[in-house]
Task: structure prediction
Amino acid sequence: MQASAPGAEEFQLPDVDLRNPLDHYRQLRTLWALSTKGDVRDEAVQKLLRHPIGATFQPSEAIAELLKPTSTLAPTQSDSGAALCEKGLSWPEGKLPLLPELCQLSLLWALNGKMEASKKLAQWLLPLLEFKTLWTSERSYDEREFYLSAYLLYSYAGVKEKASHCLSEAKISSQPVDPFFLVLEEKLAELKPFEERMDQNLDPELGLWTYSQGGLKGSIALSGWNTPLGSFKKGAVEIPALGPQGYPLTDSKSFGLSGFHAAQKLDWAGIRGWTQCLAQKDLWLEAAVEGGRIDVRFMGLSTEKKIAFVFYLKAEEAQIQETIFKPRSLERFNGLAKAIRFNKAFSIECPSPRKMELIPLAGEGCFWGANFLLAFEMNPFEPTVSFRLI
Result:
């Protein structure tokens, strides 16, 4: 990455929103990286360190410890190895396991000498990197940030093929790279790669389930904040996000889940549990997922506020009966639910007679990069719906 990326002098420091620990952390990490090269005065770093907003944000904590002569860092993580970025109460969204920041946190813990915690977190993360939109809201989705972070973690774990793929997807020659990633890559050379474990991941406390069989890969997360219930992919077709959506369908702020919810039933075959919908505080959703079958039951539906269950998809084309739909086109489908195929290789079926809409999207730059939105309207007289992904 060092040889291909533009120099640090071309990178522009981001603006800091001191109400947001994530943006605060991203400026802090850049200043730390530049300070290791003597490019900024330590006073600039110390000014950010003194701000209380980063005190309970674990990645900021880890950066702060690197600036001390001796680290006294005490990582906070569960027995499974999982960790949350935010330990405090001030920023609910940050209490999620944000994948890019947790990849970075694992490496920062290693640089702090906390090798056991670092490797446990890395082992927990590795199976999840197949699902880059997991616990990621539409507005916070940053594909480049994800790929750079995953590249470094895969490199740390010695998974060279996946590391190379992520580096290619990060497109580092197209625009300047945050010096933080360049410095982190340098320091990784001092760490010995460990033996990775690439199993499926189950976490009952987070309501997390992952699946991989017969070419279909999927994840479900009952906990979230404006984030997807799950994601799936098969071949070249990807569902980066699925879940409950308020109307209008183009308003991503009314999409997804709210709060932490544990699984009621969880094993390698599937998951079942309740979660809360962000669009309406009194609206709950029970999801039962086994392989490519998704059963959904809503509680609290009303006739006043419309709700849909939606799939955001990335595909070259969609087909309903004989009609072909292309991304970025004006042609839509609005009628009773029918089987729909994507790229002539992947189907979503909904056996119940309900209203279905297919809306072509622009693709890159919004809605997790999806270029189709498939929506099934719910109503209080039919609160359950089933889908089959084939």
Remarks:
- The chain has a mean pLDDT of 89.
